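Q: How would the structure tokens look for this protein?
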Amino acid sequence: MLILAMAIASVFVLLSRWQFSSSSETAPPAPTTTETVRPLTDVLDPLSPLYATGADQMVSFDGAFVPGARMLVQDRLLDGDEGLWVVEGFAVEDPTGDDGTTADAAQALIPVVLGWVPSVEDAATVPEQTGASTVVGRLLPPEAPELARPVEGQLPTLSTAALSNIWDQPVYAAFVVASEVTRDGAPVSFAAGLEEVVVGPQPQETPVNWLNIFYAIEWVVFAGFAFFLWWRLVADDHRRSLEDAADAEEARRTADEPRTAAQVAAPSGPRLTSSTTSSSTTSSSTTSSSTTSSGTTTRTPGPGGTPAPGPPDTESGTFP
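A: Here is the predicted structure in token form.
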């Protein structure tokens, strides 16, 4: 039983160690790495997930803005004011394949955040971006989809899955907050009428997942409980053995008590035999018969010659 408890506790300790190791998430890349502009296609492939090593990276890419692919993202804050993000779809040029043909993912779109507006009416006054351009910005992971009342041209979160359904085209699993847009080498005032959205590099401290730490502590408690269960089983078995021994001792004492009581109740002096009793009875009968026949009461002398006490003499009327 102890070996089984140790095996179970060992498994729980290994699970606790795994949870502890998972509680420390990977630290973000250093700013010296993320602030160096790299080609988007070197950091993220179309239709591939964005990992922590690629997030927050400054990237550049060529392509063209897609007409009619503007969306507004709700509930965005800027300096404490609530507004919307203006997002447009951008078709990224993909490197050609080995045979000189364009890959299928060349038409994949990536959402580009151009700026912030306080209201839908303000967004309507901002013209859409069109034509071939080069975009430089920070690559960020997508947001999770959220259920909300549908609003034409708006989304509750910047979910690339939702945008893929709306645009009906493959979408990168990330979005870019634009910091610079050029067309034919000349800067484009893409943020005219918009407030610029600034996203700095992530903090460098290693984040801690407290949920994993709580799970790790929980596994340690389970390991302790395995040993407690073993101790409880051993203690119960030992207590039962003591109770059985006490019951056996009590049964032995109970069996010895009747014999001892019989010995205590037996007389300690000499016993009268049947012959002695018969002789005494015969002597008494003889004396009585003799007295009756003579009409005189005769008493056997007592100690010292005095008559033995007895009933009064009915014939003489005198007492001794």
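The two ends are 97 Å apart (CA to CA).

The longest strand covers residues 58-78.

Upvote if useful.
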